């Protein structure tokens, strides 16, 4: 069976993935498929750095802004929607361009993982959320570390929904989430992929971009957005970097400037974890805006994409 070509633009937050994916899509009749676990949610525009209509430049974008903020959503559900979306884009004669920093989402689709059907247990899930309310996310993350250190290393303590799910899976099946995921890899993917990574050789340059992005988010109204989301969807809100860090300000426990500084720090840490995830993949073609001109970068990408399309 002829494999479906899919291009993916990956890398850490604030690196410029979205604009690069859009430029590639413009050049090669592409459509962008978001691979960001938080951009799925409605109303969370600023904290998740969703592209605006102007920034999209007329390029169709998919799997953005369609999920209510209080709805849980698994990687298996994302993969199913992404497969369908990619099929539809391909049928239109266009190039699917995945873009995002959620490495698990990208791998789940491009490696064509088959997920074992693991039922949810609402009572168990409610118990775990009650544990978080009583003891904090850190305590449940530590509990996960004891039973599944591999998943605990991969899942940030802010991502409470995924921590809850990982503990729930183990307590329901006796098998860790890590083991379930290893067992989910099929023999061969339906896709052939070209992965382009964007990063910075000088980490200080990336961190400065992160800091400036946070400042811009505050100017755009992140504080007001956080108030709106926290009042209606607390479980989702605590997962997104940009909301949890402001919570001490809302509770009048810390001044706003301290919370903003913590938000910058947590976002830098998130970027570092993303780099660690993607750096394990030897098949990523990396570009570095702090060492290459935009013309050099796009020339390199153009050669790679055109060779990829010719196959």
Structure description:
Monomer. One of its GO terms (molecular function) is ATP binding. Keywords: ATP-binding, Magnesium, Nucleotide-binding, Transferase, tRNA processing. With 311 residues, this protein is an alpha/beta fold. The chain has 2 domains: 4-115 and 184-310, Rossmann fold, CATH 3.40.50.300; 122-182, Histone, subunit A (Orthogonal Bundle). It has 15 helices and 6 strands. A 6-stranded parallel sheet has the order 3-2-4-1-5-6, with helices on both faces. β2 (30-34), α2 and β3 form a beta-alpha-beta unit. α5 (122-135) packs across α6 (137-147). The longest helix has 24 residues, at 256-279. The chain is globular, with a radius of gyration of 19 Å. The two termini are 14 Å apart. The mean pLDDT is 90.
Low-pLDDT runs: none
User: What's the end-to-end separation, in Å?
Assistant: 14 Å
Fraction of residues in H or I helices: 40-55%
Walk across the major sheet and give the strand order: 3-2-4-1-5-6
- SSE series: EHEHEHEHHHHHHEHHHHHEH
The second-level CATH architecture of the largest domain is: 3-Layer(aba) Sandwich
Main sheet properties = 6 strands, parallel
Give the amount of beta strand, in percent.
Answer: 5-15%
CATH class of the largest domain: Alpha Beta
Name the overall outline. Answer: globular
What is the helix tally?
15
Radius of gyration computed on alpha carbons: 19 Å
Tally of DSSP β-strands: 6
CATH domain fold name of the largest domain? Rossmann fold
Mean pLDDT across all amino acids: 90
Structural class: alpha/beta
Total separate domains: 2
CATH superfamily of the largest domain: P-loop containing nucleotide triphosphate hydrolases
EC number: 2.5.1.75
GO molecular function: ATP binding; tRNA dimethylallyltransferase activity
Region (Interaction with substrate tRNA): 36-39
Enzyme class: transferase
